């Protein structure tokens, strides 16, 4: 009869406890309490601008039409040089929401836009960039990948004061 090694059989409780201890004891790769702004945490330049939805309608509608393919790009993003958040101030909920042309396009791509918002919330880089400007995912109408390393986020919201 062979003698079993001392730890050959772990109880499920012991294994789960060890797993939790190891995963929670690991130091965070980027501590959030170091006083650096979120833009530095995401290691990207986060810019914001204000625009009218009537001025940007063509770009926003084109970006909404490309939402399905942009979802895949959002899932893969791990590094960006620039995150540009465009606040469409006249499309904010407090102003009555987006104009009909944009609102109809959002409704037409309703499921894709909802999935895009979830993917943005799940992407630490984009979530932190938006959080640094107090943008909620539910206000995002579309994203546009302007060129490699840059994303434009169109939000129906007003910038924080």
UniProtKB/TrEMBL annotation:
The keyword Signal applies. Residues 1-25 form the signal peptide. Keywords: Signal. This is Uncharacterized protein.
């Amino acid at each position: 009869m062979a003698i079993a090694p001392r730890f050959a059989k772990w109880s499920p409780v012991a294994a789960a406890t060890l797993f939790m201890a190891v995963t929670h004891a690991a130091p965070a790769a980027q501590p959030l309490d170091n006083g650096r702004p979120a833009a530095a945490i995401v290691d990207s330049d986060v810019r914001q601008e204000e625009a009218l939805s009537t001025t940007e309608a063509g770009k926003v509608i084109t970006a909404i039409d490309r939402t399905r393919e942009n979802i895949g790009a959002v899932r893969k993003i791990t590094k960006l040089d620039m995150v540009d958040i465009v606040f469409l101030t006249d499309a904010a909920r407090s102003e009555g929401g987006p104009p009909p042309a944009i609102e109809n396009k959002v409704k037409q791509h309703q499921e894709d836009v909802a999935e895009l918002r979830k993917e943005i919330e799940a992407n630490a880089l984009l979530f932190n960039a938006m959080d640094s400007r107090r943008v909620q995912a539910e206000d995002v109408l579309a994203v546009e990948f302007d060129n490699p390393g840059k994303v434009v986020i169109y939000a129906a919201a007003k910038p924080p004061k």
